Amino acid sequence: MKLEEYLRPEFVLDDMRSVHKSDVLAELVAPIGVAFEDFDVDKAHRVLLEREALGTTGIGDGVAIPHGKMPGLSHIIIVVGRSLTGVNFDALDFKPCRLFFLVIAPEHVAGMHLRILAHISRLLSEESFREAFLHAEGRQGLWRVLTEAA
To answer: DSSP secondary structure string, 43-98?
Structure first.
């Protein structure tokens, strides 16, 4: 599985500015709305907030994997972001999150959605990947780290 099948270079945010969880989620879905004019950014934001209300997607080690399912979506979309300062995302280890991997999936692809989440989790469990991602230069550097490792 290759992440770039679900990810575009314009869906890589190298210097996120948000400082609150809700704003991070909005910042992550914004480029999808630019790329797909029929994508409902507000609905996606609500779906992600509802998922976060069930339990944090901040898994620790500076990583969060917010995700949700949206009716009417035709394919899985991944957006990746990096916060240079870190964000309190209610992570399980109580540490700020700096790496964000957003996964939005259609309602009918549960199996693939879970495989992608598992793949991302395995990738982010590697300290060498996290370090390379944190220290990559700009969007192109992040894209290179993502496509070489994933």
So the answer is: HHHHHHHHHHHHS--EEETTEE--EEEETT--S-EEEEEEEEEEE----TTSPPEE
